[in-house]
């Protein structure tokens, strides 16, 4: 690391000669590859934007000048160049560097960017604030990895074209999101070829006009319209950005660092909104990632020299819930010709690619557009199809109004499969599926369920596509389930029914979803401990037959005071509608109720049960375990569960107390 080891902050980078920058880019890529080979994260995206990252920090006076990243998994190089090089080995680890840029961590991180398509809107707000505050700092939005397909990006563009501002938008166009990007905008960008001669002449003309002060606010719109007309005549096409009066430059090679620096310097002080279109290659500089960008988006551990991924033997362990979903969906679609699949840019992550490969005409990747995915599904359901709309729980937050207005209001038969529900681990607070239960349970007409295991997931999916079920929500976590033999007959589950998993007399534990498996482990452990304690006491009593009756009674009384409570366990299975018969049974028999869920405690399943008990005149003592009223940071799921009190030891203490 001849140069990178001397770069702590962008000020150090700006001391270098421009001819040294290719070496910086090479060393930056090497650092990212080596670190992520042992500490997994998002690899290909950051490799593809390396030159853009270096050029931005070289030309702009960050952090006074603002760089607003879109899709934060592009920003590993940015982190390394902004004071976190030595700490980068802690990236995504508990207490370490945060998984996505955050102003809470660094002044160089200007905005939250865990979800796509928000950069233009946020950057425009900063650009307007700069003008209102009479500040001369610059603002740049970097949007890419398919984020331009998101509706918020278009809303931002529309406002950019109508508000006085000097914003620069950099479009990192790599024809990818996680999977290959889709949709009209992506096809448009792919085929947007500016005449090379015209592009060079126009760029020089814009520089000359700007130097003469002819691109001021009073004249620029007329000049832009004139150049747009000239371009349309030469290239026989209308540029969508220039049609919105946003000056367009490009496309240029996003990996030519010296050219990028020259272009950015020339655009830096140009007035008015501008868009710089750069073609890049996702995974650039690391051959395995270039050849298979989807796999290498987040590849896990690998050998950096050979590119061989380190994959564990999964032959005798349970599959991922995602795999069970994907295979079951195909199985159902083969039986039911009305079933279609919809996903917003996550076919591989959610395993809808299984059905997509077998039935490409019945699966739809709509791009990074969660709201559209929901309303599109509603439209298909309205006219007789049965959509399975798979959205990550945290991303479904972006479609809340669409779920209410475009599906629930008309009670349309859309099946929402909310993947990555609960804690997701190293991706942190922007990705935890914490709020779905509390947010959705207040919406009329929805059925909300969560399977305890893979068999339950299959049966719920089968039930959801039966006639007259209306909108149906099935939530399940990221990662592996609990059953190696996950296949089972597809049978209907009566909507609104839970089940008793074990009897007890003292405490009723109510769970929802896969966390019930952890609770059952704790109950089984306590039951074994109780039996062992009784056996040990009985053995001691038989040996101590010479003890007086009073002494033995005194000891037995002491043992009884610390005895393990008799615990009944109920799998609620449905949050909505609640199993009222089951809840009446619990309310009549138990004075103590413990609820355990992997969503927010406020307003979640425990709250729903507590409200029901109050409404029906039961007054048990409640203990509610769930996620706290705070954003849970990043770390391994086991570490985070311990912090929030949802690990087995915390559950055990709650039951014993």
Give a topology summary:
Elements: H1 10-13, H2 21-38, H3 44-48, H4 50-59, E1 66-69, H5 76-84, H6 119-132, E2 139-144, H7 151-160, E3 168-173, H8 184-190, H9 196-211, H10 217-235, H11 240-243, E4 247-253, H12 257-268, E5 274-279, H13 287-291, H14 321-335, E6 339-343, H15 353-358, E7 363-365, H16 370-382, E8 386-392, H17 393-396, H18 400-408, E9 415-419, H19 436-440, E10 447-449, H20 454-464, E11 472-475, E12 499-502, E13 507-511, H21 515-543, H22 549-561, E14 567-571, E15 574-576, H23 580-589, E16 592-600, H24 605-615, E17 621-627, H25 637-644, H26 648-656
Parallel strand pairs: 1-2, 2-3, 3-5, 4-5, 6-7, 6-8, 8-9, 9-11, 10-11, 13-14, 13-16, 16-17
Antiparallel strand pairs: 10-15, 12-14
Helix pairs in contact: 2-4, 4-12, 6-7, 14-20, 16-18, 21-26
Compact summary:
With 657 residues, this protein is of the alpha/beta class. Strand 2 (139-144), helix 7 (151-160) and strand 3 (168-173) form a beta-alpha-beta unit.
How is this structure best described in words?
The protein contains 26 helices and 17 strands. The chain is α/β, with parallel strands linked by helices and 657 residues long. Mean pLDDT is 89; it is low at 551-561. Helix 4 crosses helix 12 (257-268), helix 6 (119-132) packs parallel to helix 7 and helix 16 (370-382) runs parallel beside helix 18. Strands 7-6-8-9-11-10-15 form a seven-stranded mixed sheet, with helices on both faces. Strands 1-2-3-5-4 form a five-stranded parallel sheet, with helices on both faces.
């Amino acid at each position: 690391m001849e140069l990178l080891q001397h770069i702590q902050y962008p000020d150090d980078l700006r001391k270098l000669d421009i001819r040294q920058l290719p070496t910086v880019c090479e060393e930056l890529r090497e650092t990212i590859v080596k670190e992520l080979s042992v500490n997994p994260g998002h690899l290909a995206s950051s490799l593809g934007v390396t030159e853009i990252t270096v050029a931005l920090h070289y030309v702009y006076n960050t952090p006074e000048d603002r760089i607003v990243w879109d899709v934060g998994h592009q920003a590993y190089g940015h982190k390394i160049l902004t004071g976190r090089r030595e700490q980068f080995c802690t990236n995504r680890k508990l207490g370490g560097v945060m998984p996505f840029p955050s102003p809470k961590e660094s002044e160089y991180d200007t905005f939250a960017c865990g979800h796509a398509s928000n950069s233009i809107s946020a950057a425009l707000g900063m650009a307007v604030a700069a003008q209102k505050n009479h500040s001369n700092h610059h603002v740049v939005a970097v949007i890419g990895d398919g984020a331009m397909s998101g509706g918020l990006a278009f809303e931002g563009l529309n406002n950019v074209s109508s508000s006085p501002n000097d914003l620069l938008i950099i479009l990192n166009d790599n024809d990818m999101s996680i999977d290959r990007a889709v949709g009209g905008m992506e096809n448009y960008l792919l085929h947007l070829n500016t005449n090379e001669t015209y592009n060079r002449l126009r760029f020089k003309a814009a520089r000359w006009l700007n130097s003469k002060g002819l691109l001021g606010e009073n004249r620029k719109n007329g000049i832009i319209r004139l150049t747009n007309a000239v371009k349309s005549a030469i290239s026989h096409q209308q540029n969508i950005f220039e049609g919105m009066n946003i000056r367009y430059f490009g496309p240029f090679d996003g990996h030519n660092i010296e050219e990028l620096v020259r272009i950015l310097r020339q655009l830096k002080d140009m007035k008015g909104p501008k868009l710089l279109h750069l073609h890049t290659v996702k995974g650039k500089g690391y051959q395995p990632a270039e050849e298979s960008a989807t796999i290498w988006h987040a590849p896990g551990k690998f050998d950096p020299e050979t590119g061989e991924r380190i994959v564990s033997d999964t032959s005798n362990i349970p599959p991922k819930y995602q795999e069970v979903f994907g295979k079951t969906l195909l199985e159902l679609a083969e039986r039911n010709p009305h079933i279609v699949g919809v996903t917003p840019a996550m076919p591989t992550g959610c395993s809808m690619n299984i059905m997509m490969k077998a039935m490409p005409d019945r699966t739809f990747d709509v791009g990074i557009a969660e709201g559209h995915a929901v309303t599109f599904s509603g439209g298909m359901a309205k006219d007789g199809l049965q959509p399975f709309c798979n959205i990550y729980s945290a991303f479904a937050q972006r479609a809340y109004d669409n779920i209410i207005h475009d599906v629930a209001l008309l009670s349309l038969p859309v099946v929402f499969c909310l993947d990555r529900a609960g804690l997701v681990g190293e991706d942190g607070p922007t990705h935890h599926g914490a709020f779905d239960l509390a947010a959705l349970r207040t919406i009329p007409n929805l059925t909300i369920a969560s399977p305890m295991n893979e068999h339950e997931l299959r049966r719920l999916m089968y039930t959801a596509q039966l006639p007259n079920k209306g909108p149906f929500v099935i939530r399940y976590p990221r990662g592996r389930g609990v059953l190696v033999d996950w296949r089972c007959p597809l049978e209907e589950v009566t909507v609104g029914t839970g089940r008793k998993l074990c009897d007890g007399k003292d405490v009723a534990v109510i769970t929802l979803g896969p966390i019930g498996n952890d609770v059952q482990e704790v109950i089984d452990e306590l039951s074994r401990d109780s039996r062992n304690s009784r056996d040990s006491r009985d053995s001691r009593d038989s040996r101590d037959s010479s003890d007086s009756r009073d002494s033995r009674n005194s000891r037995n009384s002491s043992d009884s005071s610390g005895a393990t409570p008799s615990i009944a366990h109920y799998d609620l299975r449905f949050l909505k509608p609640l199993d009222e018969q089951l809840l009446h049974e619990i309310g009549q028999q138990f004075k103590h109720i413990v609820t355990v869920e992997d969503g927010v405690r406020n307003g979640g399943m425990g709250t729903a049960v507590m409200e029901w008990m109050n409404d029906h005149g039961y007054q048990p003592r409640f203990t509610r375990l769930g996620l706290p009223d705070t954003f849970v940071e990043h770390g391994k799921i086991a570490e985070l569960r311990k912090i929030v009190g949802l690990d087995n030891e915390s559950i055990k203490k709650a039951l014993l107390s």
